[in-house]
Structure formats: structure tokens, C-alpha cells
Amino acid sequence: MGKREFALMVMFAGILVLGNLQEASAQCGGNFSAVFAQCEQFYRENGPTEPSLECCQELKRQNIDLQCACDYIASRPPGIGPRNGIDLNRTVSVSRACGIQIPPGLRCGDFIIPPNPAPYPAPPPEEGS
Questions:
Q1: Of the listed ranges 10-19, 53-62, 110-119, the one predicted with least confidence
Q2: Out of 19, 42, 52, 124, which residue is the most buried by the measure of CB atoms under 10 Å away?
Q3: Where does the signal peptide begin and end (predicted)?
């Protein structure tokens, strides 16, 4: 999946924190309120870890402009980051669990997308190697 899905994830995470879904939707496209309705609980610090099918479908359905998303997040006051129970690392994890490719290292405001975790723990090295 391309930058549209990634942009949705990044923009949505920043916008949820700011609580300004309509402004973000108007600027960058997509329907953030619809995504919020399906996915909010999975972005919360103490929410479920596995996203629902409905959340994943809504994330994939939206069409968000990547550069607009990053610019919007970066233009917000410093330190807004993951607040009000929204965890940006969980937002990334949920999006990736939904099959959305998110490039690590991308900077959006003060948040840097973390590397992809290994799908399974690496086996221990064999002795004598």
C-alpha cells in the first residue's frame, strides 16, 4: 500500500490528538471522523492491540495526501504529540497490522516513524558459529 494509506495513518494520529478532524479532512482529503469512529479504541494507550476488520477497512478506504498530512502535523504547536490517551507508536502498529506499508524514519512534526518490527523473534544463534 502506498503513501495514501501512510498519510492517513500519520495525519489521523496527529489530528486525533488535536481534535480537529473536520479541518484536517478539508485540507488533506479523506474522512477522519469515519476512521476515528472505527479505530479510536485501538490507538488508545490501554486499548485492544489487534485492530478490527472494520478499522482496517476504513483505514484502507481513505485517500489522504502524505505531504499535507505531515505539514499539518508539523504546523501544530510543539509538544502536542500523543496526548489524551492516543499513542502514536500504537497508531503505527495498528496501521501496519492492517497491511499498510509505513516507511520507517519518516519525520512528521516531532514524531519519527519507528522501524518495522521483525515478524517473529529471531532464533538464537547456534553455538559454535
A1: 10-19
A2: 42
A3: 1-26
Place of cell 485492544: 48
Q: Which cell numbers in the block locate residue 38?
A: 472505527
Cβ contact 72:14 at 8 Å:
yes
Q: Which domains does the chain have, with CATH numbers?
A: 3-112 (1.10.110.10)
In this prediction the pTM is: 0.64
Cell 490528538, residue located: 17
Query: How big is the CA angle at 63 (ends 62 and 69), to the nearest 5 degrees?
Result: 110
Closest to 27 (Cα-Cα) out of 93, 83, 18, 40: 18
pLDDT (tens digit, 9 = 90+) per residue, 54-72?
A: 999 988 888 666 556 656 6
φ, ψ of residue 19 in degrees (nearest 5): 70, 25
Cβ neighbourhood burial of 61 (10 Å; 0-12, 13-18, 19+): middle
All three cell numbers of 18, joined, read: 488535536
Task: Give pLDDT, residue 111.
Answer: 76
Angle at 8 between CA 112 and CA 94, to 5 degrees: 70
